[in-house]
């Protein structure tokens, strides 16, 4: 079960080649790609687009920081990350973006590397999404076939895939039609074969925030628990 960014981990696990064929990168030379075992079932909860969440920040600002200020910081971070990306192409290392920049558009002292930042905000999307831009609403069906659509082919999921979205997720822009997006993911997952998507337990959690952590989230949390227990057959 993955929550938020953990949902990307779940989909990567189920959809990527097994084992990964890419060689160890220069910034992680000791990486060893292993064969991943199949799992009985998988749950993605609060799967959101980091890129679209960032678009909200760039359009409306965050906290006491204006949209213009946030856009200026964002563009500086993208520039630094792309410079590091070019350096990695000739044997350079990854690096952590300056905290005085990341703290302007991310909570607290959130540390993020240049590579990770580009993967999340994916400046080239929707034409060429980076590896962690998996849940944006503007991603084309052809791209979804390479993520959700690969779950069956990889054969790493022996049971069903349960996907839940928070109905009032503050990380999801208002323009995103959550029901329609779930339907697109379902169609990409199932294709023309037997259902993989768990229709009974997937869907929206009414009035749920992103983390379901505040005092007013007791009912959404109960809804989530009941859905998960039903999926597990408990």
| Global mean pLDDT | 94
**What are the secondary-structure elements, in order, as H or E?**
EHEHHHHHHEHEH
Order of strands, main sheet, comes to: 1-2-3-4
Poorly predicted parts:
none
Overall form: globular
Count of distinct structural domains: 2
Strand content: 5-15%
Alpha-carbon Rg, integer: 19 Å
Question: Number of helical segments?
Answer: 9
Pfam families: DUF1749
Topology readout:
Elements (H helix, E strand, L loop, with lengths): L1 E2 L1 H11 L26 E4 L4 H11 L6 H22 L10 H7 L8 H8 L19 H5 L5 H4 L6 E6 L11 H13 L12 E3 L12 H15 L2
Parallel strand pairs: 1-2, 2-3, 3-4
Helix pairs in contact: 2-3, 3-4, 3-5
Task: Describe this protein with a few key phrases.
single chain, 234 residues, alpha/beta, four-stranded parallel sheet, 9 helices, 6% strand
Structure characterization notes:
With 234 residues, the chain is an alpha/beta fold. It folds into two domains: 1-49 and 135-234, no CATH class; 50-132, no CATH class. Helices cover 41% and strands 6% of the residues. It has nine helices and four strands. It has helices at residues 5-15, 50-60, 67-88, 99-105, 114-121, 141-145, 151-154, 178-190, 218-232, and strands spanning 2-3, 42-45, 161-166, 203-205. Helix 3 packs across helix 5. The longest helix has 22 residues, at 67-88.
